[in-house]
Amino acid sequence: AAFWQTISGEHGLDGSGHGGNTENKEEADACLMGNNSYNGSSDLQLERMNVYFNEANGDKYVPRAVLVDLEPGTMDAVRAGPFGELFRPDNFVFGQSGAGNNW
């Protein structure tokens, strides 16, 4: 999820996949340093948005990703995190039990 947090910040998206219209250089720099409060609408940020994101309803962007794990607890942790709303629920693929003691 840290990758998506960084990419979202670079493209001016918040944790729910929405962009804003604040164009403040100090806030943009803070975003790149790990503070994801900047929500920009710069043409440069929107230029290659489709590389990592698909546009959904209501000016929301969702990652072009499928999250896969054998243990559902890991996926629950991602969903409960600050960027859990970013992902589509049907893009989570997990097993019902972990792979513990499979060796």
From TrEMBL:
Name where it's found: Cytoplasm, Cytoskeleton
Cellular component GO terms, alphabetically? Answer: microtubule
**Which keywords does UniProt give here?**
Cytoplasm, Cytoskeleton, GTP-binding, Microtubule, Nucleotide-binding
Question: Positions of the region Disordered?
Answer: 1-27
Q: Boundaries of each Tubulin/FtsZ GTPase domain copy?
A: 2-103
Protein's name in the database: Beta-tubulin
Pfam family, any one: Tubulin
Give the matching InterPro entries. Beta_tubulin, Tubulin, Tubulin/FtsZ_GTPase_sf, Tubulin_FtsZ_GTPase
**Alphabetical list of PANTHER family matching this protein:** OS01G0282866 PROTEIN
Q: Spell out the family assignment given in the record's similarity comment.
A: Belongs to the tubulin family.
Listed GO molecular functions? GTP binding; GTPase activity; structural constituent of cytoskeleton
Q: Name one GO biological process term.
A: microtubule-based process
Q: How does it assemble?
A: Dimer of alpha and beta chains. A typical microtubule is a hollow water-filled tube with an outer diameter of 25 nm and an inner diameter of 15 nM. Alpha-beta heterodimers associate head-to-tail to form protofilaments running lengthwise along the microtubule wall with the beta-tubulin subunit facing the microtubule plus end conferring a structural polarity. Microtubules usually have 13 protofilaments but different protofilament numbers can be found in some organisms and specialized cells.
